[in-house]
Design a protein that fits this description.
This protein has 207 residues and is of the alpha+beta class. The protein has helices at residues 44-52, 57-63, 70-86, 110-124, 129-138, 146-155, 165-169, 173-176, 188-199, and strands at 2-6, 9-11, 14-16, 29-30, 90-95, 98-102. It has two domains: 2-138, no CATH class; 146-199, no CATH class. The chain has nine helices and six strands. It has a three-stranded antiparallel sheet with strand order 1-6-5, with helices on one face. α1 (44-52) packs antiparallel against α2 and α3 (70-86) packs antiparallel against α4. It is globular. It starts with a strand and ends in an 8-residue tail after the last helix.
């Protein structure tokens, strides 16, 4: 079985990690940053949050200068890959929209496999520093928000018109698109729309 773990997205004071459609692997995690920030610029708050809650010293060092480079992002991906491998899981692909992970490890339940993915994502910094790197690359002006994601899903006809930001933050997209169905032929169209909105929520499906 394969799992599409969508790229984690860091929004202000909340880390929302997407698995499959948006999150099945990761529950919403509330992180409280410190009152003062060592960073400046439009991503200062997010950088401080990742720094304060870094899983290890390497992640602290990566974000400490306020810049996450492509080379540093690859270091995190490889740490994520190594952790998955050590847990008998295979990272098949990783791109701007997220990861494809092979969960076909004998003798381990799907729930346990997903728990291992969550652990590796957290410990490697994939769901924090790497998520922020991708957001900074895709949204340099820091204009995207949970609201823009929800509006994109509505424009793409992925969710009903009354789907709320609160439901999005609670990972309720999985209610409409269970992770195990997205890689079936019937889920291909939805998966493509989800990836498109994750990549560019402001400009996609407009007009």
């Amino acid at each position: 079985m394969r799992l599409f773990k969508g790229a984690a997205v860091v929004f202000s004071l909340t880390v929302v990690a997407f698995a499959s459609a948006c999150s099945a692997v990761h529950p919403q995690t509330e992180l409280e940053p410190k009152k003062t920030s060592r960073f400046e610029g439009i991503y200062a708050e997010e950088l401080q949050m990742v720094f304060d809650n870094a899983p290890n010293q390497e992640i602290k060092e990566i974000v400490s200068d306020g810049v996450i480079t492509e080379a540093e992002s690859q270091v995190i991906i490889e740490a994520f890959r190594s952790c998955l491998s050590a847990n008998e899981l295979t990272l098949e692909t990783y791109d701007n929209s997220g990861a494809t992970i092979n969960l076909d490890n004998k003798g381990v339940s799907p729930d346990e496999s997903q728990s291992r993915v969550e652990k590796c994502s957290r410990e490697s910094g994939e769901n924090s520093a790497l998520a922020l790197y991708k957001r900074m690359q895709q949204d340099p002006k820091n204009e995207n928000s949970p609201e823009t994601m929800v509006e994109c899903y509505k424009r793409a006809n992925l969710v009903p018109s009354d789907f709320t930001v609160e439901e999005f933050m609670q990972n309720q997209l999985d209610t409409y698109y269970p992770p195990e169905q997205l890689y079936e032929p019937s889920g291909a169209e939805a998966l493509e729309k989800i990836r498109t909105c994750n990549d560019s929520p402001v400009d996609s499906y407009v007009g």
